[in-house]
C-alpha cells in the first residue's frame, strides 16, 4: 500500500517536464509512483526521461487522478489548449503568477490546487506552499499535499494573495542561495584562496549552516550569535553584512520584492 495507490490506478499527467516538473517527477518515482502510470506531455523531453517506462507524449488517460501543469507561465495558454475535458481530475499548477481564476476558465468545474515548490524537491528537500479553489475537498488537498510531501515539506496558505510573495521568497530563493555561494567563493578568492578551495568552503558552509538551521532548536538569530565572538572575526564581517543601509537586509528586501512583483505581472499576463 503506497500513498500513490489511487494515482497508480488512474494515472498522473505531467504537462511540462523541465527543471521543476522533472525535479518533482524524480521525487515521485523514487517514492512509489509507477512510471507506467505517468503520462508526460513535453514536445522536447530531455533524453534522461526517454527510457524510464513513462508514457511519453502518449494519449491521455480518460480520467487521470491528477493533472500537473509545469510549463512556463508564458506557455500556459498554449498548453491548456492541448488538454481535453477532464471528468474528475485534480488540477495542480506550479506556475509562477498564473492565478487559479485563469485555470478556472479552462476547467470551470475542476478542483484546482495552486502550488509553489522549489527545485531542492529533486532531492526531497523542497518546500511547497499550496492553496486550492472552492471546488477542492479535504481529500483533494490531501492528495496534492501527498504529492508535494513526497519531495519535501508543505505549507498550506490562507489566501492566494500570499502566493506571489511565496514565489519571491522560496520559489526563487534557491537561486539567491546559489548566488551567495558564488559570491562567498569569489570573496575567498579575493583573499588569496584558490578557486577550488574557496568554492568547496563556500558550498559546505552554506549546506552545513542550512542543515543546522533546520536541525537545531535555536532560531537562526541565536545560531548567528553562537558564531559571533565579541570583538572577533564574525563581528567584523557582520558589521558589513548587517549594515542597515548597504547590507544584506535592504538588498534582500529589494530582491524578494522584485521577484514578488514579477509574479504579480506574470499573473496579469505580462510576458
Ligand atoms: N525552475 C524553478 O525553480 C521553479 C519553477 N516553477 C514553475 O514551474 C514551471 C516550469 O518552470 P521550469 O521547469 O523552470 O521551466 P522549463 O522550461 O525547464 O520546463 C518547462 C518544460 O515545458 C515544456 N513545454 C513548453 N510548452 C509546452 C507545452 N505546450 N506542452 C508541454 N510541455 C511544454 C518546455 O519545453 P521547451 O523547453 O522546449 O519549451 C520545458 O521542457 C513554470 O511555470 C515556473 O514558474 C515553480 C517553482 C520553481
Ligand atoms: O523564475 C521563475 O519564474 C520560476 C518561479 C520560481 C522559480 N523559478
TrEMBL record:
Amino acids binding NADPH: 57
Organism of origin: Paracoccus homiensis
Pathway participation: Amino-acid biosynthesis; L-proline biosynthesis; L-proline from L-glutamate 5-semialdehyde: step 1/1
Cellular location(s): Cytoplasm
Gene symbol of the encoding locus: proC
Residues of the Pyrroline-5-carboxylate reductase dimerisation domain: 160-266
Reported function: Catalyzes the reduction of 1-pyrroline-5-carboxylate (PCA) to L-proline.
EC number: 1.5.1.2
GO molecular function terms noted in the UniProt entry: pyrroline-5-carboxylate reductase activity
Major subcellular site: cytoplasm
Broad class of enzyme this protein falls into: oxidoreductase
GO cellular component: cytoplasm
Signal peptide feature range: none
Name under which the protein is recorded: Pyrroline-5-carboxylate reductase
Family: Belongs to the pyrroline-5-carboxylate reductase family.
InterPro entries referenced in this protein's UniProt entry, alphabetically: 6-PGluconate_DH-like_C_sf, NAD(P)-bd_dom_sf, P5C_Rdtase_cat_N, P5CR_dimer, Pyrroline-COOH_reductase
GO annotation, biological process: L-proline biosynthetic process
Amino acid at each position: 500500500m503506497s500513498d500513490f495507490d489511487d494515482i497508480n490506478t488512474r494515472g498522473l499527467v505531467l504537462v511540462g517536464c523541465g527543471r521543476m516538473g522533472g525535479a518533482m517527477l524524480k521525487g515521485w518515482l523514487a517514492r512509489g509512483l509507477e512510471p507506467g502510470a505517468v503520462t508526460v506531455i513535453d514536445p522536447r523531453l530531455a533524453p534522461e526521461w526517454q527510457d524510464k517506462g513513462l508514457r511519453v507524449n502518449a494519449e491521455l488517460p480518460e480520467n487521470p487522478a491528477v493533472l500537473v501543469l509545469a510549463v512556463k507561465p508564458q506557455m500556459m495558454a498554449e498548453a491548456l489548449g492541448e488538454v481535453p475535458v477532464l471528468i474528475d481530475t485534480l488540477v495542480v499548477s506550479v506556475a509562477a503568477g498564473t492565478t487559479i481564476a485563469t485555470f478556472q476558465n479552462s476547467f470551470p468545474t475542476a478542483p484546482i490546487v495552486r502550488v509553489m515548490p522549489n527545485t531542492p524537491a529533486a532531492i526531497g528537500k523542497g518546500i511547497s506552499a499550496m492553496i486550492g479553489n472552492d471546488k477542492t475537498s479535504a481529500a483533494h488537498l490531501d492528495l496534492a499535499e501527498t504529492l508535494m510531501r513526497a519531495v519535501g515539506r508543505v505549507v498550506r496558505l490562507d489566501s492566494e494573495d500570499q502566493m506571489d510573495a511565496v514565489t519571491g521568497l522560496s520559489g526563487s530563493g534557491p537561486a539567491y542561495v546559489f548566488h551567495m555561494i558564488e559570491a562567498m567563493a569569489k570573496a575567498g578568492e579575493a583573499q588569496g584562496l584558490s578557486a577550488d578551495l574557496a568554492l568547496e568552503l563556500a558550498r559546505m558552509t552554506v549546506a552545513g549552516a542550512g542543515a543546522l538551521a533546520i536541525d537545531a532548536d535555536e532560531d537562526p538569530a541565536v545560531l548567528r550569535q553562537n558564531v559571533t565572538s565579541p570583538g572577533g572575526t564574525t563581528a567584523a564581517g557582520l558589521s558589513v553584512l548587517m549594515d542597515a543601509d548597504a547590507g544584506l537586509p535592504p538588498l534582500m528586501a529589494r530582491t524578494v520584492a522584485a521577484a514578488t512583483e514579477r509574479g504579480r505581472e506574470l499573473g496579469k499576463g505580462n510576458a
